[in-house]
Structure formats: C-alpha cells, structure tokens
Amino acid sequence: MELSDQPADDSSLLLDTNCLQISCNWKIANNKQFRDAFILEVSSLEFKKTNFEDIVSLNTCISLQPTESNNEPCMLDIRLNNGQRISQIAVVSEAYVLEFFKQFGEYETTKFAEFVDEFEDNSVYFAETAIFPHATEASIKFTKTKSKNSIMWIYGIKLYLTKLINEPKTFSTEIFNPEIIKNFLTKFSFNNEGNNTTNDVQSCYMNILNTSKNKSVQKSNGEEVAQSTIENTVLNNVDITTYIDKKFEDMERRLMKKINEMEQRTNEKLDTILRQLESQCNIK
Questions:
Q1: Residue whose C-alpha is closest to residue 155's, from 12, 51, 38
Q2: What is the pLDDT of residues 180-239, one digit of tens each?
C-alpha cells in the first residue's frame, strides 16, 4: 500500500474537523493530534462502500501506545458538537477485530476487518459500518491487533455525517389561542338539569369567550384597548383561580366529613366490643 502526502479526499475538506471532540485511553506516540486521523464527508441517503485508498495518506497516520497504567484495548471516543450526526464509519488500522458503539456507549456491532496489505511487520486492515439510528456520539474499540509491539497504527478514519439542519430562528408567540377552545365549547351541549358542574363549565366558557373578544378588540383598537384587555384577562384569571380554590375547599370539606364519619363508626364498634368484654368479665 502506497501512502500519498496529499489529502485523501479534497471534497471531504469542506467539513471542518474542529466539530470533533475526541478522547482516547491510549496516547499518541508521534507528533500528531487525534483530529489528524479523521476526514469527514456528508453522507448519502444509502450506505456507501468506501474505497480505503481515499482514507489513507501520510497526514492521517497516527501512532498510539497504551499508558503505563492501562492494559485495555485502545478505545477511541468521538463526539460531534455542531448538531450533525454520524451515519457511517470507515477505519483503516492495524486492528483486525473492531467493536463499534453509538450514543451513550450503546453497542452497535463487531467487525472482522478485511486484510489489505502488510509491510515492515505492520498489517493493514479495513473495516466499516453504518450507525443506525444516526448518533452524535460513537466509539471505536480496537479489540485485537497483530502488532508485535505495544504500538498500534491508525492509518485513517472516515466519518460520514448527516447534513446540518438549521433550526428555525423565529417561533410563533401564539402559544395559547382561545379561538380553538371557543370553537370546541360552542359544540358542547350543556345540560342544566340538576347539574352544578354544568354551571361552572358555563362560567368558565364565558370567561374564555370574553378573553377571545378582548383579543380581537386589541388588534383593532390599539394600545388603550390593549391595556383594557390585559386587565380583563387578569380578572378572568382571578375568577378561574377562585373557582379552583373553591373546588379544593369543597373537596377538603367532603373528605373531612367522610373521615369524621368513619372515625365515629369505628368508635361505636370499639365501645360495643368493650361493653361485651365487661359483661363477660362480670359473669365470671
């Protein structure tokens, strides 16, 4: 395998690797940074078979070695900070068994890499996988290598990223629309026959209608009417608050009444039991 000192893929340079946050439990043994090993490309709608020669160059080769206190396989953690997501990963390295993980460390798959070449006691393997669902985080575990020393080479990693979706900058301030509730309530059939709840609903309905009318007047009559609308809305809110407080008071009163009745019945039963015990003792 011949290595070129030219960038592996000019089109991929359109994506800046500064969006990558990379951490690893091994350390770099040559004068490189982790970002140097990566090239980025916008993903297509379907899985795209990668040509490993488009990944590898002299610029993308990094050498890794374990730290003194670490005997674990090399684990490379990748995170995007620009809102894009990883859809596919292609890796050229000395590892012939690789494990891939996605968001929150969830296991994705294990790949037995394809042998590519061997030179100067260094083996070259190629593996790639799709990440689904697409994730802002991914990890690569270089589980097994054929390296005869503690140094492991990563010759290049290609990440396929989804297109960046721009979030809308403006949002509607119309969070609450009384017209929707008004249309619903106009279709509601009220029944006044001995139902106190119906009267409460009708009162609430009238409050909403008033709020809707005030809103319409606000749009047509300017700032003075706007102040009046705000005052009416506050009054309506006070009415609803009073209504809710009254309902809680009624509920509390009914609950206390039930508790008192249960306590009274319990006391009566206990008194009966005591009288029967006393009578039994007197007989003896």
A1: 38
A2: 665 665 655 544 444 555 555 556 656 656 665 665 555 555 555 555 666 666 566 666
CA–CA gap between residue 230 and residue 29 (Å, rounded)? 68
Which residue did the predictor score with more confidence, 253 or 123? 123
pLDDT of residue 13: 41
Helix (H) or strand (E) holding 273: helix 223-283
Domain boundaries, the chain: 10-161, 178-283
- Structure tokens given for 68: 């003194």
Distance of CA 71 to the CA centre of its chain: 34
User: 60 near 153, Cβ under 8 Å?
Assistant: no
In this structure, what token pair is assigned to residue 22? Answer: 């990379």
Average pLDDT value over all residues in the chain = 79
| pLDDT tens readout for residues 57-87 | 999 999 999 987 778 899 999 999 988 999 9
Alpha helices in 100-222 (DSSP H): 178-186, 196-221
Going by C-beta distance under 8 Å and a sequence separation of 6 or more, which residues neighbour residue 269?
none
Length in residues, the chain: 284
CATH T-level topology, domain 10-161: Jelly Rolls (2.60.120)
120 conformational bin, left if phi > 0, alpha if psi -120 to 50, beta if neither: left
Cα 220 to chain centroid, rounded: 43
Structure tokens at 32: 């490189």
> What is the phi-psi region of residue 222: left when phi exceeds 0, alpha when psi lies from -120 to 50, beta otherwise?
left
CA distances from 208 to 101, 107, 176, 233 (A): 53, 52, 11, 9
